[in-house]
Design brief:
The complex is a heterodimer. Chain A is 29% helix and 30% strand. By secondary structure, chain A is of the alpha/beta class. Chain A starts with a strand and ends in a 5-residue tail after the last helix. In chain B, helix 3 (78-92) crosses helix 4 and helix 5 packs parallel to helix 8 (317-333). Chain B starts with a strand and ends with a helix. The chains are: A alpha/beta, B alpha/beta. The interface between A and B is large, with 89 and 95 residues. The complex binds flavin-adenine dinucleotide.
Chain lengths: 287, 336
Amino acid sequence: MKLVVLIKQTFDTEEKIELVNGAVADDSVKFIINPYDEYALEEALRLREAHGGSVTVVSCGSDRAVEALRTALAMGADEAVLLEQDGLPDDGHAVAAALAVALQPMLPDLILAGLFAVDRGAGSIALQIAERLGLPHAAAALKLEVRDGDSAGAARAAGGNGADAKPVKAHNGASWGSGDKVAVVVRDTEWGDETVEIPLPALITAQQGLNEPRYPSLPGIMKAKRKPLRQVSIHDLGLDAGDLAPRTERLALLAPPLRAAGRKLSGAPAEQAALLAELLQREAKLF
Amino acid sequence: MKRTALVYAECADGKLRRVALEALGAARLLAGDGGSVHAVLVGGGPEAALQEAAAELAARGAGVVHVVDDPALAGFAPEAYAAVIGAAVAAVRPSVIVLGHTAAGRELAPRVAASVGGGHVADVTAIDLQGDGGADAVFTRPLYAGKAFEQRRFLPGAPGVLTVRPNNLPVAEPVAPGSEGVIAALPYPAPPLWTTVRSVVRKTGGTVDLAEADIIVAGGRGVRSAEGFAPLAALAAVLGGAVGASRGACDAGYCDYALQIGQTGKTVTPKLYIACGISGAIQHLAGMSQSRVIVAINKDPDAPIFGVADYGIVGDLFEIVPLLTEQFRTLLSKPG
Ligand SMILES: Cc1cc2nc3c(=O)[nH]c(=O)nc-3n(C[C@H](O)[C@H](O)[C@H](O)COP(=O)(O)OP(=O)(O)OC[C@H]3O[C@@H](n4cnc5c(N)ncnc54)[C@H](O)[C@@H]3O)c2cc1C
């Protein structure tokens, strides 16, 4: 199986966010692989262990993101690609367009990504890529299994809802995948744990709980230094100006509104409970 | 400002969700006076429920409600639902498309944005109209799980897609009688249905959806056991709220991860958040610190949660919470 994992380098979640001159200060900040992307990577490594194949990690970012890719290689990925963000506007449309073009020639059976990145929190890029490549997706995976799809095709035919497993056609007309494998995914939704089946090639995003990511081992770190890491410039991708034009623009970056210092109540427990109920009613006007 | 806005009106169990009405409110604002507002409503029976939802949207300012009703759409299938919204987009040609930032909305918005080649602004918590006659809409959204915010706008040229965070924007108010919108059937554009849903295991949670709850009573490791959530559930029941939890409580196995609030759990913005036995780690604050009023109950007077709480009670939750339940039972049973 050809497995591709999208990873993003993000701030450590423990870091304080400081705004300096209208930008987030990033000197002396610790950077990590986005935690959700780590689940995606771990799952890809396990799928390779079970089914064979290769794991390619892909990131779009600055030169600093090479560190994140090296960590991924040390965890066990086979090769890495850094799509340089120079020339890409600060907008999901262009980033998704560029990544989709970079990923397509890899003809992945499965693209794995995190549910969202903890910095922007939009959860947009991976699913935009699925749409651009014409792939089905399953979001927020808690469990993932890949198996032969014969029974699935039959089930779909019997259920009468939808097309047979088929080679996927991307928007630009290219197609890949023999459609003989399916992913069975338990996904986390507001309406419950939903088990779905989707034919490969497909894109799946990882939710917390999917697995426990491994740490890079010392031999892994040594080996990572010799594994291929390719840097691709967006000029190599042949994108047109329309793809690169931003669709949104940031106007301002703001610190969160400060919460006024609260009030600690005092008195015997029963008095405090009574006072709180009264304050919530009279002062906070909640009831 | 005069624009065409399209809303995806999400339903749950055949009923319109409140966030659908908040999205409709946003769409009306963005369409401006004299603009047109369309809604697309997706379902697979029972038809009566769908018609009721459509009537409510029409009564609250959707000029046209496009109803797509097909048995294949009974369960959420992202590619099929995205195709339906795509068909509505083709029919309506909106400049802006609004969805709720819910599990479904989060999946649909990026696909719709990519299919129309448009911009996507996710998890919007506030909308300001600026510029000449409110020509520019400025969207506020959290970054780093609420440790910062950004303001964004769409650039002209392609439709913009936004998702609105539940509980943050006002719902669309009813329009004057006689000016209700019309309801129209839209054919289901049957795309290949890639996703086959095999089963859904409903989570054992409260009856109130966390993301949309007005009041949340949350427990942390301080509840000490699964049974320790019982007094919290009793308080939530009296207040008509939902029960939530810290990751500490989930990790300890006291409750389901579905209840987890925080950076890697749900983001909530209720009117009232009562944190019981929760220390207030930064990852927990990320999910709840934008709540309107925060109450903290904690044994440790130095717990960081008191730093964000409007009202703090230093004490044992097993003593305080039942007392609060009694207070509210009396208070809320009094008329007025
Ligand atoms: C990458 C990452 C992501 C994370 N994501 C999340 C997330 O999404 N959500 C989240 O919540 N956490 C998250 N965490 C974990 C977070 O760092 C904390 O570990 C967690 O929030 C602690 O939970 P807690 O406050 O319930 O437990 P504790 O920190 O153990 O606090 C328990 C509190 O209960 C009080 N207490 C004990 N007994 C009583 C009593 N009888 N009455 C009153 N008070 C009492 C104690 O004084 C203490 O303050 C994340 C961590 C990491 C590293």
